[in-house]
Amino acid sequence: MTSVTKDPKNYPFLRNLQYSPLKQGEEQYILLWDPSRLSEEKLVIPLNFFYLFQFFDGEHSLEEVGAEYLKQYGEFLMPDKLSRLVADLEDKLFLEGERCEEAKVQAIAAYRQAPVRKSVFAGKSYEADADALCQQLDSFFDSKEGPEKKPSEHQGEKIKAIIAPNYEPKEAGAIYAWAYKELREAVTPDVFIVLGTCHTDLEHGIAVTDKDFETPFGVLPVNKPILEHFRANGGAQFFEEDIRHAQEHSIEFQLPFLQHTIGSQRPITIVPVLCSFPPTTLADAELKPLFEKIDAFLVALKASIAASGQEVCVIGSASLAHIGLRYGDNKPPTDFSFHRCMQTDLEMLKKVEEMNPEAFAQFILEEGDARHILGFSTVFLVMKFINAEKGEVLRYDRGITDQFNSTVTYASITFF
C-alpha cells in the first residue's frame, strides 16, 4: 500500500471502502461505506464522481484528478466541488491520513480496554431480546426451508466441523439451521473453534481475539487456557489485529445459533479466529511469507489444543460467490447467469466434500476467482484444521443484496 507522504488534502488517498450501486429514477449513484466500521458514516455520490476514485491513490493531485475528469467527460470540474468532496471524505474518515490514524489508535485502545466484545448486530440482523431471539431461531428450524424433521443420519456420531452462511441471519436463518441441526444431534465437545471471514484485509491473514463475546443470551467465554498457550507459543503475532473483531459480523452471526443449540444445554467455550487471504496465497511466490504465516498459525493452534487435552469442533462462517455490479461485475446477474454460478458453486463444493483443500483452491484459481469467493480462507482453513472422512453439502441458497440483483451464495456443510 502506498504510504501517505504528501498533503492528503491535495493528494487524497482513499481507504479500502465498499460500495453499492443505487438508482433513483433515471439517475445512478454509488453508496460508499467502511467495511471495518472505523467510520459508521455512509456517503452517496454521483456515478461520475465514483470514476475519479481510482485516482485517489495518494499520488494524483487534485489538479491531475480534475484533468482526468475533463478527459473522461469532456467538461470542466469546478475545483471547489472537488475540494468539497475531499473534505467530506476526510470528515467521514474515508481517507488515509492523520485523522484516520488517530481514530484507529483510539478504536484499538477502546476495544482492548473493553471487558467483552459486545453484540453489534443484535436488533439489526437478529432479535436483541433473548426470548424473542429464541423464538426467531426456533422459527428457522421449523420453517419450510429449514431442515428435515427426521433425525440426521449422523445422529449420535462425533462431528468434526460445520460451515454455515456468513449472511444476515434474519434472511438466511433456515440455511444456518441445516448445519446447526447436525451439530445439535451429534456428539460435540465443549470447545468450538469459530473461524470467521474477515471483510477487510489482514496483514497476517489471521486475527485472533481473547475477548469473551456478549450476545442476547449472555456472555460466551473464550477458552483462556488454549489462547494463553497459543499466545506464548508462536501465536502472539496473530493477536496484533484483534481490533478487526470489534465490528466484524462473521463470528457474531454464528454465536446465537451455537448458544441456542449447544450452549443452552451445558457450558461451552470458543476460540474466535478471523481469516482473510486469497487462493493465490498457495501459488504466488510473492505471497509465500503470508502462506508461511497461515501454516505457522495452524501448527501453533493445533499444538495449543493438544496441550490442553481437549477435543474441539470447528465452525466456519463463510459465504461463496459474490456476483453483480456491487461486487465489481459489469452487469447485473440474470436467471441464467445465476444458475450457471450455482452449478459452478456445487462443482467447486465437491472438492470440499472430498476434503481436498488444495483442489478447492485450485478450482478458484483456474476460474480466476471470477465469482469472488469471499469465504475461501474460512472454508480452506476448516479443511486444513480437521481430520474428517468427508464433508456433505446440506443446503445451498442465495441472497439478493441490492436493487440490481447483486447476489451472494452460501451453503450449510457438515463434516464427520
Question: Could you explain how this protein is built, in words?
Answer:
It is built from 13 helices and 13 strands. Helix 7 (224-235) crosses helix 10. It is of the alpha+beta class. It folds into two domains: 18-105, no CATH class; 117-415, LigB-like (Protocatechuate 4,5-dioxygenase, Chain B), CATH 3.40.830. It has helices at residues 47-52, 62-73, 79-91, 98-113, 130-142, 169-185, 224-235, 249-252, 255-263, 288-308, 335-353, 357-366, 376-385, and strands spanning 18-24, 27-33, 42-46, 161-164, 191-197, 206-208, 213-215, 218-220, 269-275, 312-317, 322-323, 391-400, 407-415. The strands form three sheets. Strands 4, 5, 6, 9, 10, 11, 12 and 13 form an eight-stranded mixed β-sheet that branches. Helices cover 39% and strands 18% of the residues.
Q: Could you say what the CATH topology of the largest domain is called?
A: Protocatechuate 4,5-dioxygenase, Chain B
In one word, what is the shape?
globular
C-alpha termini separation: 42 Å
Q: What is the helix tally?
A: 13
The ordered string of helix (H) and strand (E) elements is EEEHHHHHEHEEEEHHHEHEEHHHEE
Helix content: 25-40%
Summarize the biggest pleated sheet: 8 strands, mixed
CATH class (first level) name of the largest domain:
Alpha Beta
Number of domain units: 2
Which structural class matches the secondary elements? alpha+beta
* Tally of DSSP β-strands: 13
State the low-pLDDT regions, or none.
none
CATH architecture descriptor text of the largest domain: 3-Layer(aba) Sandwich
Q: Beta-sheet strand percentage? A: 15-25%
Rounded to an integer in angstroms, the radius of gyration calculated over CA atoms is 22 Å
Q: CATH superfamily assignment of the largest domain?
A: LigB-like
* Mean pLDDT over the full residue set: 95
